[in-house]
Each structure stands twice: as C-alpha cells, then as structure tokens.
Amino acid sequence: MQTRLSNFRDRLGGGQPLLGTFIKTPGVQAIEVLGDVGLDFVVIDAEHAPWDRNAIDLALLAAKAGGIDALVRVEGIATILTALDCGATGVMVPHVSSAKIAQEVVDACRYRPGRRGFTNSSRAGKYGRLGLTAHIDASDPRTTIIAMLEDPEALDHIEEIVAVDGIDAFFLGRGDLTVALGEAATDAPSVRAAIARFVGAVTAAKKPLCAFVNSSGEIPALRELGINTFIISSEQGLLRQAATAELTRFKALAP
Questions:
Q1: Neighbouring-strand partners of residue 172
Q2: Which entry of 48, 95, 135, 157 is annotated as an active-site residue?
Q3: At 80, is the pLDDT very low, low, confident or very high (cuts 50, 70, 90)?
C-alpha cells in the first residue's frame, strides 16, 4: 500500500508515473478502498460534486487512514483555505487563465512567501500540537499546487502563467477547453492546437503535466506528450465500468 507520508509534491515534480481518480460522492469508504488498492492519489471534486466543508474534512481523514494522498479540486481561490486546513495534500484550481490568477493561487496556498490565513488548530496543524513555525515549515514544502489550463484566454498568457513561481504542475482541462472553443470532441483540430500550445509552454518551463483519462487505453498517446500523472475517471465511473462489465458477462452466460 502506498504510504501517504511520502512527499507527493516531490514525486510529482520528479516525473514519477502517478495514477489517481476523482471522488464525486461525499463519503469515506471509496477513499479507503482506493487507498487499499494502491492508487497514488485521489482528487475530491468540490468543483462539480456536492462536497461541503464537513464532508471534505471527513474525506481527508479517510485518506489519512487509507494511506493515500488526497487533493481537492476547489471551486476557486476562496475555497483553497478550507481544503488545506483540513489536511489536503494540495489543491487543483480551475480556470487559471492569467499570471495574476496564478500568483493569487500561490499566495493563497503558501504562508511564506504568500498570504495563506494562519491557523494551527486544524488537522493540518495537528490540532495545535505544531507551533507557529513548525506548522509553517511542515505545510509550505508539502502543499501541492496544480493549476488547470482550460480557457482559450490562457493561450494568450501561457508563457507568463507557467513562469509563476510556486505552481507545481499544470492540468490540461480538455473538456472545458473543448466546450469553450465550440467543439464537440477533444480531438477537434482547434482543441489539439490549443493543447499543443499549452504542452509546449509547460514543457519549456520544465513543469509536470497532468491529464484526465476515461480509461488506461488513452494513456500511451498522452505519455508521448510528456504527461506522467493521470486522473482516471472517478469512483462513480469506475463503479459503472466494473458493473457494466460484470452485467455483460452475466448476460453472456448460458441460461
């Protein structure tokens, strides 16, 4: 089982192949199961699923118990502090379309340098056991920041965005980008051109790239782009895939 005490930020930055999944359903059991399976990480999807602060808090406790790193895809900069105080390994932040937004994200995640609101009374500060300096020294090097590139506007500012110090990795939001460009598929020429532009700038900046896949069959082509970190489906999607496969096998059995 993957130990959660390993530094996920270092593993991500070092280019290690990493596999995780989105968690859409507020609860703890799926996270514990996936930790036991040995996935590298989960991403609690507080942007597109009904997660409140209490549910996020419990989910991050489950991740700790299950020995798996857990990031939170936040709704925006205003909700970063909730995730980090509850003990998230890091955050995925949507719609980072300018260097100004990227810098605001970094400032919200880091104490020094940064503007993260301080408390050591939460899980991240071991409920007060860590003193001020000890908590800062533990949190800043560990907190992982992944910025999502999913807006056409980001294409005009991509070199400035990737140059912002403190962003650890970039996630290619192909779905939102496809919709924003008015296309119906992620392999449309305009989408492919935009992705190539993002990939070129991120690669030149020597930053890691992450991507979503529906299944492992999509991974080889993305690895050719230099992507090593993948979010495969979600716990709901994996449940659907497994249930559909078993139902198909059942129907194929002789009566």
A1: 149, 211
A2: 48
A3: very high
Q: What is the mean pLDDT of residues 206-234?
A: 96
The pLDDT tens digits for 115-124 are 999 999 999 9
Q: Please name the residues in contact with 190: beta carbons below 8 A apart, sequence gap of 6 or more.
A: 181, 183
Provide the number of structural domains found in the chain.
1
Tell me whether residue 95 is in a domain.
yes
**Range list of H helices, 21-128:** 29-37, 53-66, 80-85, 99-109
In-domain check, residue 43: yes
CATH number at residue 49: 3.20.20.60
Q: Indicate if the pLDDT at residue 239 is higher than 80.
A: yes
- The confidence score (pLDDT) of residue 1 equals 37
Token couple for 216: 């492992």
Does residue 148 form part of some domain? yes
Nearest to 21 by CA among 40, 2, 6: 40
48 is annotated as an active-site residue: yes
Q: What is the pLDDT of residues 152-173, one digit of tens each?
A: 999 999 999 999 999 999 999 9
CB 56 within 8 A of CB 87: no
Q: Which domain range does residue 209 map to?
A: 8-252
| In-domain check, residue 199 | yes
